[in-house]
Structure formats: structure tokens, C-alpha cells
Amino acid sequence: MTPTPRIGVLALQGDVREHLAALDSAGAEAITVRRAAELESVDGIVIPGGESTTMSHLLGVFGLYEPLRARLADGLPAYGSCAGMIMLASNILDTRPDARHLDALDITVRRNAFGRQVESFETDLEIAGVTDEVPMRAVFIRAPWVEKVGDGVEVLAKVPDGPAAGRVVAVRQGQVLATSFHPEVTGDRRVHAYFVDMVRHRRHPAP
Ligand SMILES: NC(=O)CC[C@H](N)C(=O)O
Fold this sequence. Notes:
This protein is an alpha/beta fold. The protein has a single domain (6-203), classed as Rossmann fold (3-Layer(aba) Sandwich). It has 6 helices and 12 strands. The protein has helices at 16-25, 36-40, 52-61, 65-73, 83-88, 190-203; strands at 6-10, 29-33, 44-47, 78-81, 89-93, 105-110, 120-125, 136-141, 145-149, 154-158, 168-173, 176-179. It has a 7-stranded mixed β-sheet. The chain has a 3-stranded mixed β-sheet with strand order 5-6-9. A two-stranded antiparallel ribbon has the order 7-8. Helix 1 (16-25) links the parallel strand 1 and strand 2. It starts with 5 loop residues before the first strand and ends with a helix. Bound molecules: glutamine.
């Protein structure tokens, strides 16, 4: 029997409900995380889309910044979508100077990178390890892109065409996954299923 991993969704701000539903249908037990005790109980964490500077502020208010950094440094599997990607990054361009981030993924991201004309758009993406023959409809909402990746960061997807062609929009480094787009707002559960597998694999590595 495959054990059910317990995955938390950081529930300070953003599209928490959508991630809970997506994780649930991808086979995880999904719970909201607002307190350190809840954070302690999870096998993986999702940081949702929303507004990264607000989320950063609330992490401090709820006393979660240090505990979350500590669990991430200890190898807790994490997935961030959009603002969540920004929160996980080691370096952020175009943010507020007082915004704190979690430094769990060796990338440089640019906030609101796609500019005015294409602030919100959709495109079909191929994502390494996630999509096979059928690409995924990806929804971008005032999204960041990844401007630089460090050693050990795998690029999983790039924008295929249009003014932002070639921009990196999905990455993985070890136990940390991030996408510029929002798979939680479509019915496609493949990114969440991929993350649930990452969490399972960490808990129960092959003998
Ligand atoms: N949809 C999103 O999560 C947008 C992210 C937002 N622009 C930020 O900077 O945090």
C-alpha cells in the first residue's frame, strides 16, 4: 500500500483552497499551515500564489519565518507557485528592500517580469518529468520568471513562444520545486502529482 503523505499549504495569504483541493485529488492529505506546530507535522509544504511581499510580512507576524527556513534547510520538500516561487528563491529582483524570503532555491527571479501587455496570459507548456505527449495549459498572473539558475538547479520548462519565448518558468533543485504559473487554478493535477511523488520518495526511499 502506498502511504499517504501529509502536505501543508502555507495559509497566510493567497490561493490556499485551490492548492488544498489539487493536493487532495493528487493523493495527499492536505492541511493548512498557520502555526509552527502544524508546520512540524507535515512531510512537505506548498507555498501558494498570492503576493510575495504580503506573505513575507505575514511570515514574520505569525512567527513562521525561522521555523520554515529551518525545516527547508533540513530538506523538507517544498513547492512554490508564482509568489511561492519568489518566496523560495535565493535572490529576488524588483521587490521591496524589506521583503524576506526563504533562500531554499538557488535562483534569481524577477517579480512581475512579464510586463504590462502580458501581465496575465496562458500558454501550453512542456514540463520535463511532468508532461509527456500532452502539454499543460499554464496560467500566468503577474508572474515572475527565473533569470538565473545556480548549479544543481534543473530547468523544467521555458515559455515556448511569444514575446517571452525562452524564459524559464519551472525549476527543481533537489527537494524544491517551483513554477511561475498556477497549476492549482486549472483541472490539470500533473504538477501536484509530481510534487506528491517527490514527497513520497523522500519519506520512503527505494531500498
Ligand atoms: N500570482 C501571483 O502569485 C503573483 C505574484 C506577485 N506578483 C508577487 O510579486 O508576489
